[in-house]
Amino acid sequence: xxxxxxxxxxxxxxxxxxxxxxxxxxxxxxxxxxxxxxxxxxxxxxxxxxxxxxxxxxxxxxxxxxxxxxxxxxxxxxxxxxxxxxxxxxxxxxxxxxxxxxxxxxxxxxxxxxxxxxxxxxxxxxxxxxxxxxxxxxxxxxxxxxxxxxxxxxxxxxxxxxxxxxxxxxxxxxxxxxxxxxxxxxxxxxxxxxxxxxxxxxxxxxxxxxxxxxxxxxxxxxxxxxxxxxxxxxxxxxxxxxxxxxxxxxxxxxxxxxxxxxxxxxxxxxxxxxxxxxxxxxx
Amino acid sequence: xxxxxxxxxxxxxxxxxxxxxxxxxxxxxxxxxxxxxxxxxxxxxxxxxxxxxxxxxxxxxxxxxxxxxxxxxxxxxxxxxxxxxxxxxxxxxxxxxxxxxxxxxxxxxxxxxxxxxxxxxxxxxxxxxxxxxxxxxxxxxxxxxxxxxxxxxxxxxxxxxxxxxxxxxxxxxxxxxxxxxxxxxxxxxxxxxxxxxxxxxxxxxxxxxxxxxxxxxxxxxxxxxxxxxxxxxxxxxxxxxxxxxxxxxxxxxxxxxxxxxxxxxxxxxxxxxxxxxxxxxxxxxxxxxxxxxxx
Lengths: 283, 295
Known about the structure:
The structure holds two protein chains of two kinds.
Chain A: E1 18-32, E2 35-48, E3 52-56, H1 63-71, E4 78-83, E5 86-87, E6 95-98, H2 110-115, H3 125-138, H4 154-167, E7 172-176, H5 184-201, E8 204-208, H6 212-218, E9 221-225, E10 232-237, H7 255-275
Parallel strand pairs in A: 3-8, 3-9, 6-7, 7-8
Antiparallel strand pairs in A: 1-2, 1-4, 4-5, 9-10
Chain B: H1 2-5, H2 8-28, H3 36-61, H4 68-71, H5 74-87, H6 89-121, H7 123-138, H8 145-152, H9 156-181, H10 184-192, H11 197-234, H12 240-249, H13 253-281
Helix pairs in contact in B: 5-13, 6-7, 6-9, 6-11, 6-12, 8-9, 8-11, 9-11, 11-12, 11-13, 12-13
């Protein structure tokens, strides 16, 4: 059941509008000689330029696999992924990737970390310096340029990790539960900062999370995935206006409906799993 | 010689103990804390007192409680040192040993690190050669010294060979162990950010593995000296090992101690250089992880 969702406003014919096109992608992992685990099954998805898309689903639904496939870090079993009109084969250097943990290079300073992606791009020395300065400022890390990651707090490291991915201007930023391990307050502050940064840059973001509130609060569209093997269960368009106030997101018009819709699907999804109607779900 | 192998670890231990001690003391009693230099001075004074006391005891014991030809004495060793130094004998022999280490050590360390890196990067190579290298590792490498003499003669090249083989394996194994621990996500991230092969190696992989590389490098320092001396013990016409063995053969114990003292000095010197390199390479680490593959 290929599920291609185009939100009503999308100009369906104009393919160049899509920065990422996932077409009937499946991924199975070989666990042993004749044992296969389906991680993704027949996933289709189009993402427009400048869109903020979140992907939610129960753990083990292959949402991380999906963005690893888009990044070309993992090879796909069937289907194809097109990034800016080109099929992804091997590593996709058009994307920026923010992993679950910050994964700053601990042997490089904050400055060198942020500059890492710039070196392979045709920036002049001056431009490069200017960009690094700008993004460090954006992350609120001015004054910490010469620090090593081990000397940063968790939140600072996270921000540095995000601007490292933004700094070299990739077409798409992939984020794999970047705020997962943080405490609630830090999380909210970072969500707020992420939105502020994004509103300036409007790069396309695909953001994986298991937090429904986060999914709705950040996104233009929320992709809901089923339990393993991952399929796209539904796509919800979030009608909230921007800029959004993360700290009072519940009061914003549109949040409740979107969240309720999402929760309905999710609850149903969890029930399906409990009834054992989906045999693949029994690990 | 076994005391020489141990010199690095205990001094480092002591240093770190001292610094933590000092910090906790400052925190506990800020008013009573002493300035750093004064405390350092005290530590140095106690150390000099202990070492001085030991030499004094040695001097007194020699010839009184223990036969002088067995343990010599500090004053005789000093005299022997001056004599050997003035005759040029000591300098010549030291220079020979120094050359053996100076050639064998860097080549062994670099090829060891390089091989460890290559094996870590290529699964095929690792699969083919790993069992072979582990089998070779099982051979006590100093036992290969006579073979090197057979192959390369009794000049410096056989000792360079022994130094090389000892140093190579320690560096190889530590680097390879580090490569196995390498976080693939760092590599993936760097490649996504467009890092080419060169940047990937020198800006990402080698720095990531550098704590392991440094450990191997530092561990191999005393072993390089052991290698050179073992080679010279077996067959040589010059070098500190030859000098020590020749002196021991005719019970010139003082000269034996002179040779040992010079060897100690070489190890200390090499450790100092290694410390400088370590501080430079690992300055991003707040604490040096204790990772080690023993040789």
